[in-house]
């Protein structure tokens, strides 16, 4: 039996549901409201998070039922990672899909769920809820261009 961790010995498609879910580092970047520029196709991230996002825990507050409350929430699967170019380069799913290893700050590597926050990769404490906006388009007033460049969310 190999002493290698599962993410080094299995493809994303071979992982069990619990292994797959454990890859989420808790950064919260996938829970940001985004807009797509109709002319360029560019995806513009904002500092506005989904109404189900718990900003203190940096997690979805109703993950199991999120599609009921937020029908356009994207369920990440091994089959759609390629198409989700806006996923940040730091994302474990994207890293593994691209043949890279998990980052040293990833909780599965560090053994500490807080390491992602200490590394400055998460959005904890940097966002507002979409529930405070009058209109959904108001989220564009909270564009996050530095996340687009530093974290690679296009």
Number of domains: 1
The biggest sheet, with number of strands, parallel, antiparallel or mixed sense and barrel status, is: 3 strands, mixed
Alpha plus pi helix count: 7
What string gives the helices and strands in order? HHEEEEHHHHEH
| Average residue-wise pLDDT | 88
Q: Give the fraction of residues assigned to helices.
A: 10-25%
| Rg | 16 Å
Secondary structure tally: strands: 5
Shape: globular
Strand content: 5-15%
Low-confidence stretches: 147-154
State the end-to-end CA separation.
40 Å
- Give, in spatial order, the strands making up the sheet with the most strands: 1-2-5
Structural class: alpha+beta
Helices and strands, with pairings:
Elements: H1 6-9, H2 17-22, E1 32-36, E2 43-49, E3 53-54, E4 59-60, H3 66-69, H4 92-97, H5 107-110, H6 115-118, E5 128-129, H7 145-150
Parallel strand pairs: 2-5
Antiparallel strand pairs: 1-2, 3-4
